[in-house]
Amino acid sequence: MSFPKINPTTTNSWKTLTELAAQRKTLETYFTEDESRAEQFSIAWEQFFVDYSKNHIDKEIKDALIALAKETGLEVAREAYFGGDAINQTERRSVLHTALRAKPDADIRVDGENVMPEVYKVREQIRRFSQSIIDGSRKSSSGKPFTDVVNIGIGGSDLGPAMITEALTYYKNHLDVHFMSNVDGDHVMEVLKKVNPATTLFVVVSKTFTTQETLSNATTAKKWFVEALGDDAVADHFVAVSTNLTAIYAFGIQPDNVFPMNDWVGGRFSLWSAVGLSIALAVGPDHFEALLEGANEMDTHFATAPIDENIPVILALLTVWYTSFLDAQSEAVIPYTQYLHRLPAYLQQGIMESNGKSVDRNGVPVSYQTGNIVWGEPGTNSQHAFFQLMHQGTKLIPAHFIGFAKSLHANQDHHDKLMANFFAQTEALMHGKNEAQAREELTAKGLSGDALEQLVPFKIFVGNKPTTTFLIEKLTPNSLGALVAMYEHKIFAEGVVWNIFSYDQWGVELGKQLASVILNEFDTEKSSNHDTSTEQLLHRYKKLKKS
Asked: Does residue 460 sit within a domain?
């Protein structure tokens, strides 16, 4: 199947949307003119209720966005995505993280071979291994059960497992899982300070087993471990998630302790694979399976729902609308649960590494805005921080509010206060506070005359700030899987409409290449042809390092 390569600016719908962008009304006007707006611009699916009525669109704009999706070939692209076509064309790879959570009877082929038997073989390997560590039947070299797990990886080999493990803390077992990612030696040693080598399992995650940060950290951890327990104990305490068997064996990891990966799964979409071993260890294989099942349910929704009732498609089109037509630069993600405090950081990699592209699928520089900056923190903490800019700043910041109807610990008083803020903030962002309301409020406080007049401008909120609300029944492994998969498909749909390749990351490679050059220069007088600023900084670093 041919993957579409359509410049969106050549479509009729792009021209229509450009005209509509200049004619849009305020959110309050939209609601005043259409009493059924909230119902029309909402989607109920499984545990999810998505209300996108507080966005700068009306039926005409939505219809034009849907037309844009069709004109840019989203429906055809979606079939290629799930069908195993090599849609990551610059790396000649399929993009099949969806296969990792598909049903066992699915027939998903890469180069003519059904990948599902291998997927379920690895899933069973994860189940058996994690259960044996959890129940203590597999013991450490000391003969004691394991108490701690250290996941050594970076990027998708860290952000996904770390985010999910934090999000599912309520469901965790007795194992304490730690994450070592940054090549910063201080970070490495701080992690090692927390664990006992005699009862710690190390999970080294690197597809190629050549990633500088991961190998440096793994080597340091191994040296620290061997000094305590000796070389012979490595086999009982180190496992690897990788494809480079030669490098793994040279490191000292035994064949039975290797969990394979596939080149048709990108790092930032790999938590569903053996990269998620630390998740299975932290919360148990049953909860890990439930996470995969939730993702698969969202996969089915995205693959089969009409695009005008399709949650990831609608979210993607809203982002395209704000980014390419209304000049928004960023998108805030505000989860109203502390459990999801790592979600914005996780989405930063998924979204910004995928769609931060300026060349289209035809190899031509784009003439329109793509990608967006993703950021956020949990509510209500964020209300006491950057919400000031959202309410009264000059930036257009579409925001996602994610909340759950039921708390996990059933503390209803706390949860009601949390959710009162959740609903109030989206309402306040839309309505704001006009001059008359500000005057009335200040008068009620006893102000009058010049004192009142001087303060009025500072108490006005223009409102008209867009938000999308996700009200989910409860934070479970299943609903979390669906939530993360929803954002994955949103990324894909955006990339299709923008006509960019979402699944390569050549920009990441550039910095790695330059770092290798500079590293080799630190202990020599030799220097490459750097710019004068870099030369100055390197000279000062070398001098300070020796002092």
From this structure: no
